[in-house]
Specification:
The structure holds two protein chains of two kinds.
Chain A: H1 16-20, E1 36-42, E2 48-54, H2 56-60, E3 64-69, H3 70-75, E4 107-108, E5 114-120, H4 123-131, E6 134-139, H5 146-149, E7 165-172, H6 174-183, E8 186-198, E9 206-212, E10 217-222, H7 227-239, E11 246-249, H8 265-277, E12 281-284, H9 287-291, E13 296-308, E14 314-326, E15 353-362, H10 376-394, H11 398-405, E16 414-415, E17 421-422, H12 427-437, H13 443-452, E18 456-465, H14 473-479, E19 487-493, E20 499-503, H15 512-524, E21 531-534, H16 552-578, E22 586-589, E23 592-595, E24 601-603, H17 604-612, E25 627-632, E26 641-651, E27 656-667, H18 674-693, E28 725-729, H19 747-764, H20 778-788
Parallel strand pairs in A: 1-12, 10-11, 14-15, 20-21, 27-28
Antiparallel strand pairs in A: 1-5, 2-4, 2-6, 3-5, 7-15, 8-13, 9-10, 9-12, 13-14, 16-17, 18-26, 19-20, 19-25, 22-23, 23-24, 26-27
Chain B: E1 3-9, E2 12-18, H1 24-31, E3 50-53, E4 56-59, E5 72-74, H2 90-97, H3 107-120, H4 126-132, H5 144-162
Parallel strand pairs in B: 1-5
Antiparallel strand pairs in B: 1-2, 3-4, 3-5
Classes of the chains: A alpha+beta, B alpha+beta.
The structure holds FE2/S2 (inorganic) cluster (2 copies).
Protein name (chain B): (2Fe-2S)-binding protein
GO molecular function (chain B): 2 iron, 2 sulfur cluster binding; metal ion binding; oxidoreductase activity
Pfam families (chain B): Fer2 (PF00111), Fer2_2 (PF01799)
Chain lengths: ~800, ~160
């Protein structure tokens, strides 16, 4: 036995030693013998006909090995990048799905679209040669906003996609909603924009590809959240490489947030090119290159209406959204504003009728896909903003209106009118906890203190529910998923009792090496130090769907738990033989197998040893070895939820919004490692605060240029933007995951934007302000205050 | 055309031939295989590349290698409790203790900035730390545990000095 560290403890992280000493192993740190450098030449235009590429000068440039274009892709007969979800409209008509070539063919559709790949001995030579490439463009007008894109006469991206509409998707009972609206005592209306975001993991994307002619095998090292899915999509659907000839490795990855969970054209191009030039190739994106090629997030324009009775009870909710897909469909693209958005519009409320229409629209912008929270923050923002609008219009306190409509704890499991059924939750408990932690009682005193300094103080609430761990496969399949949504884990017990776990999720900051080791330590009674977690390499791990949507612990942890159960079951068989007892009499506790009611006992190490040195072993009925694998396909989503309260101070002189207090009480189910969960909540909250106050990807309509194209123009939250946050968990257990876990990676990002904007609106409500679009930058607030044309001094 | 430069790198005398346009971050990563210094941007905004030049924090992505001639350079690989020791620096210990890192990509730069902050000012307030980390971006942690770590690390450095 030894140092068992189980569920609920906060051991220091196993992964930290290497990161703290500069010994991490990120893709850009890797070197291969004979390695060359690759550079992508990208479109400078938002929309243009690609007339041709003249390679001659580039090819003659020093050190250049090859220049590849869309024509070469065509000649080699390669596929285009697949979309992982095929959604349909209400009549069952499938979405329009134009091909997404790995290098542009015939047309470019966004600034950053890849036109050519230049390979040279050094990065400097590749860059110099890229400058010499002559690309003949016939520039067309660009359309970047969704409202503009669906207007008659707008530039059309694809000949066979009229009005740029990929799919006209809907959910809910339209007629029931209309009936309820007719009976309503009050209807609150709100138009809002959910701003386009850029993920900005601190490690830029990178890839290295190598082909070994001796074994006819390819290896791709890539900054990916799901290497097995990349192998599957790229090998089977794009490059026609048999799966067993392709190894995909995602080593240490410096943050993902969704941005690294797609199969990117760069990965396919570099792998294909490595065989053509017969040398390893490395490509590392610059941050600015990431801005025009990493998939963006959010970008909705929404009209929402909430019908209420005279007591403030919600009768029906109607939402019409235009969702921007950018120039092509990315891996999960069409799934985000539909399946991950519509079903969450019920929130934590008992609204009996909901209808949602989403027009999924192509524009000349970087493709939009999942970004931390993906669909759920958008749903929460619409709902929690309109609840505030309704409260203020009807003169009901904002907390009171929420209470009147919340699903009571006893009502779970709760079936919503929009597909999903929540298994457990306690929104009221989270709200009560947050009100106390945020010291809402004394807010008036703090507001008066601000006023005495000429500042406006506001308080904002956001309650929310999210859906984690996309599930189950057959349900997702009906919604349009083209892959499974299970996870796999293998528990390999070595002859001396140490354990190596091979798991299909990917660790890029979430602390899997620690959390998963805790699960094994607790379940097998082995020392925490004696458990290692292996991930991110398709040659070492059987299969896996990777890490996104807060699924790692929920789905991957469940697979791991199942695999450890199988190890124990086999261990019992071995123990029964060694202890000459019946299998049913063997119990396993604290790392020991014993015969119930006796002192006959065998340690976990002894059982492991007997499995691999089977001298006294029933080989006729039992195989040697102690290694078990499990796949787990979840029975339902899990539904974390919670309440966030933001407190802001607005300086009317400058328009600056300062976040002064932030409180979150989140229900994430069982907490395995409180330290890690708290860290995830902190990070998630700041990512949402970033959206609310600072971040926005801005395009120029017409030219399609990305105006916020570097860290100079895109404002990332920094340490001095934040106060110390108060976060706590209020956990109800998930009723269907093995350990009761719900997921915690995205809750912060889902709860925070609405809380912050509700606080900003509250601070300015005395000036007649009823809504502020994100981000609430000083410029936007200052203009609003000027337009309010009221004396700027506080009362 | 290359130039030869000599400097002290993590307590070791080092002489290399470099192209004059080479950035220090590139020299470290590509020529000297010290990949702990990370590159997170191309506009000197992120701070992933911070190292100490003659005891002061600098962004190594904006410094040309020839400027190192005759200087003393400390990178994350050389950060130790004391020269020659195998033990981690108190600031590294504090980051581990207080969960001041997640993906680890910003961490080397954060640590180098943090050590410089704590060296410059013996007692750091929360506001000092937040302000001092202005040039270092972290996308994962929300900064809260980094701030706690830096304050704890600074206190430990002070205590060690007092011994
Ligand atoms: S890489 Fe030096 S500041 Fe970003
Ligand atoms: S720990 Fe990931 S960027 Fe800071």
């Amino acid at each position: 036995m030894g140092n068992v560290i189980g569920i609920g403890a906060s051991p220091k992280r196993k992964e930290d030693q290497r990161f703290l000493t500069g010994r991490g192993n990120y893709v850009s740190d890797i070197k291969r013998p004979g390695m060359t450098a690759g550079v992508f030449v990208r479109s400078p235009h938002g929309h243009a006909i690609l007339r041709g590429v003249d390679k001659s000068a580039a090819l003659a440039s020093p050190g250049v090995i090859a220049v590849l274009t869309g024509d070469d892709v065509k000649t080699d007969g390669l596929g285009s990048l697949p979309c992982g979800w095929g959604i349909s409209d209400a009549k069952g008509v499938p979405m329009k799905e134009p091909p997404f070539p790995m290098l542009a063919q015939g047309k470019v559709r966004f600034v950053g679209d890849m036109v050519a790949f230049v390979i040279a001995d050094t990065p400097e030579q590749a860059n110099a040669a890229a400058e010499l490439l002559t690309v003949d463009y016939e520039v067309l007008p660009s359309v970047v906003g969704v409202l503009e894109a669906v207007r008659p006469g707008a530039p059309q991206l694809f000949d066979d996609v009229p009005n740029n509409i990929c799919c006209d998707w809907e959910l809910g009972d339209k007629a029931a909603v209309e009936t309820a609206f007719r009976k309503a005592a009050h209807v609150a209306k709100l138009s809002l924009v959910n701003n386009r975001l850029i993920g900005n993991p601190m490690e830029p994307r990178a890839a290295i590809a190598e082909y070994e002619p001796g074994t006819d095998r390819f290896t791709l090292w890539t900054t990916s959240q799901f290497p097995h899915v990349v192998r599957f999509l790229m090998g089977a659907l794009v490059l026609n490489i048999p799966q067993h000839k392709l190894r995909v490795v995602a080593p240490d990855v410096g943050g993902g947030f969704g941005v690294k969970q797609f199969h990117y054209g760069e990965e396919a191009v570099i792998t294909w090119a490595a065989k053509r030039v017969m040398r390893p190739i490395k490509w590392v994106a610059s941050r600015s290159e990431g801005y025009v090629s990493d998939r963006h997030g959010r970008d909705h324009v929404t009209e929402a209406e909430l019908a209420l009775d005279e007591t403030g009870k919600f009768l029906a909710f109607r939402v019409n959204t235009l969702a921007n897909m950018g120039g092509y469909l990315s891996t999960f693209g069409p799934n985000i504003p539909t399946n991950l958005y519509g079903p969450l519009l019920g929130g934590v409320y008992t609204t009996p009728a909901i209808y949602c229409n989403v027009k999924v629209v192509f524009t000349n912008t970087v493709p939009v896909d999942a970004y931390r929270g993906a669909g759920r923050p958008e749903a929460t923002f619409v709902l929690e903003r309109i609840v505030d609008v309704a409260a203020s219009e009807m003169g009901i306190d904002r907390v009171e209106i929420r209470r009147r409509n919340m699903i009571p704890k006893e009502a779970y499991p709760y079936q919503t009118p929009v597909l999903v059924q929540y298994d457990s939750g306690d929104p009221m408990g989270c709200l009560d906890g947050a009100l106390i932690a945020a010291d809402v009682k004394n807010f008036g005193i703090r507001k008066a203190a601000s006023a005495s300094k000429g500042k406006f103080r506001g308080l904002g609430y956001s309650t929310y529910v999210e859906a984690c761990g996309l599930a189950p496969s057959r349900f997702a399949g009906r919604l349009g998923a083209r892959g499974g949504l299970y996870e796999s884990a293998t528990v390999r017990v070595h002859p001396t009792g140490q354990v190596t776990v091979m798991i299909g999720t990917h660790n890029h900051g979430q602390g899997h090496e620690t959390t998963f080791a805790q699960i094994v330590s607790e379940k097998l009674g082995v020392s925490f130090e004696n458990v290692d977690i292996v991930f991110g390499d398709t040659d070492r791990v059987q299969f896996g769907m990777g890490t996104y949507g807060s699924r790692s612990l929920v789905v991957g942890g469940a697979a791991l738990s199942k695999a450890t159960d199988k190890v124990v079951a086999k261990g019992k068989k071995i123990a029964a033989h060694l202890l000459e007892a019946s299998e049913v009499d063997i119990q396993f506790e604290a790392g020991n197998f014993s015969v119930a009611g006796t002192d006959r006992i065998k340690s976990f190490e002894e059982i492991a040893g007997a499995a691999y040195v089977p001298h006294n072993y029933p080989l006729e009925v039992l195989e040697p070895g102690l290694e078990e694998q499990a796949y787990y396909d979840p029975v339902n989503f899990t539904y974390p939820g919670g309440c966030h309260i933001a407190e802001v101070e607005v300086d009317p002189e400058t328009g600056t919004v300062t976040l002064v207090n932030y409180t979150a009480v989140d229900d994430v189910g069982t907490v395995i490692n409180p330290m890690i969960v708290e860290g995830q909540l902190h990070g998630g909250i700041v990512q949402g605060v970033g959206q609310a106050l600072f971040e926005s990807a801005v395009y120029d309509e017409g030219s399609g240029q990305l105006l916020s194209g570097s860290l100079m123009d895109y404002c990332m939250p920094r340490a001095d933007h934040m106060p110390m946050m108060k976060v706590a968990t209020h956990s109800t257990l998930c009723t269907h995951t093995p350990m009761g876990v719900k997921g915690c990676g995205e809750v912060g990002t889902i709860g925070s934007p609405a809380a912050v904007i509700n606080a900003v609106v509250d601070a300015l409500s005395h000036l007649g302000v009823t809504h502020v679009d994100m981000p609430a930058t000083p410029n936007r607030i200052w203009r609003l205050l000027q337009n309010a044309s009221l004396p700027v001094a506080a009362e | 055309m290359t130039v030869q430069i000599s400097f002290t790198l993590n307590d070791r005398p080092t002489t290399v031939d470099v192209e004059p346009a080479t950035l220090v971050a590139e020299l470290l990563r590509e020529q000297l295989n010290l990949t702990g210094t990370h590159i997170g941007c191309d506009t000197s905004q992120c701070g992933a590349c911070v190292v100490h030049l003659d005891g002061l924090p600098v962004k190594s992505c904006t410094l040309l290698a020839p400027a190192l001639d005759g200087a003393t350079l400390l990178t994350i690989e050389g950060l130790r409790s004391e020269p020659g020791s195998n033990r981690m620096h108190p600031m590294q210990e504090a980051f581990r203790e207080h969960h001041g890192l997640q993906c680890g990509f910003c961490t080397p730069g954060m640590l180098m900035t943090a050590v410089a902050l704590a060296t410059e000012k013996p007692t750091l307030t929360e506001a000092d730390v937040r302000h001092g980390l202005e040039g270092n971006i972290c996308r994962c942690t929300g900064y809260q545990n980094i701030v706690v770590s830096v304050m704890a690390g600074a206190a430990a450095m002070n205590a060690a000095k007092g011994e």
